[in-house]
Amino acid sequence: MWDEFKKFAMRGSVVDMAVGIIIGAAFTSIVNSLVDDIIMPPIGMLLGKVDFANLYLTLQEGDPAGPYLTLVEAQQAGAVTINYGLFLNSLISFLIVAFTVFLLLRAVNRLQDELAEGEPAEEPTTKKCPFCLSEINIKAKRCPQCTSEL
Asked: Given Cys at both, which of 10, 31, 50, 145 links 134, Cβ 3.0 to 4.6 Å?
């Protein structure tokens, strides 16, 4: 069983998938930082110094009762909130990741198309006998099926 597991784990596709997951996790932290630290502050400033991380709707007051200046204060008080600002940050992060993956796949597809164009077309190795219509070697002078001369 151990040998079978090692064979499975060392298969190329499993290793490639593991590398992709690790790179994806690292990329996610970069995108989250890009959204939280670079994109959202100017957008918040344009919208009147709004911090998107602190946009929330209070459904039920906590103890002590609000109003709360930040989401952290509301959560510490035990208030029930809908955190739509954090959702907006996540949505923007997703759109950035999706667009980046789209650009990457588009580049890979174009590269594959260019490589495919440069390859010569495969020449046929067989032909049909005009008498019995069986497949024969393209260099054959006589059909082995019907013994006709070509």
From this structure: 145
